[in-house]
Specification:
By secondary structure, the chain is an alpha+beta fold. Helix content is 34%, strand content 33%. The protein contains 5 helices and 7 strands; from the N terminus they run βααβββαβαββα.
């Protein structure tokens, strides 16, 4: 970043819970995760929970993802959020690039997530997916518990090894 700050991505720690909860509360369609749920996510084998931290501004983005049974070798991104503005965009790219790097060393070949179709959030996710994963989300259907949201799939089999 041109202002001399640096973004570092690391695993979520207990001290990050309030940041995650505060940022989740600003998202119109997010569930604010109780501390216990965040703690539990950290205990799930194969989960990836990341914080992007700016050297001047502190925590700026987070990602909470867990492996799921179906489709096989899939990671479900439960929440991805960032602060507003260019800091948030840079932090989101940093956390997604770290996520991508971690997936390279695993058996994960798909990412799933749910969001409102054609919403600003979906358009941002689609833009990040193209840039970081060289992949475009495919709609796989509506979410059973919320007919407004749809579930999407990113296939990473080949693109994850060749995306820059």
């Amino acid at each position: 970043m041109s202002n001399g700050s640096h973004i570092h991505v690391r695993g979520v720690e207990i001290g990050d819970f309030a940041f995650i909860q505060d940022l989740a509360s600003e998202q119109s369609n997010f569930t604010v995760p109780p501390s216990y749920v965040i703690w539990l996510l950290l205990k799930i084998k194969g989960s990836i929970c990341l914080i992007a931290e700016d050297s001047k501004h502190g925590p700026s983005a987070y990602l909470l993802a867990v492996p799921v049974e179906s489709p096989e070798n899939t990671m479900f991104v439960w929440q991805l959020a960032s602060v507003k503005g260019s800091l948030g965009e840079n932090a989101t790219l940093a956390v997604l690039n770290e996520f991508r790097g971690l997936l390279k060393t695993s058996a994960i070949v798909n990412i799933t997530f749910s969001t409102l179709p054609n919403s600003p959030a979906f358009r941002a996710i689609r833009r990040y997916a193209r840039k970081v994963f060289s992949s475009v989300p495919e709609c796989t259907g509506t979410v059973a518990v919320d007919s407004k949201e749809s579930e999407f799939l990113l296939r990473l089999t080949d693109p994850i090894s060749s995306a820059s």
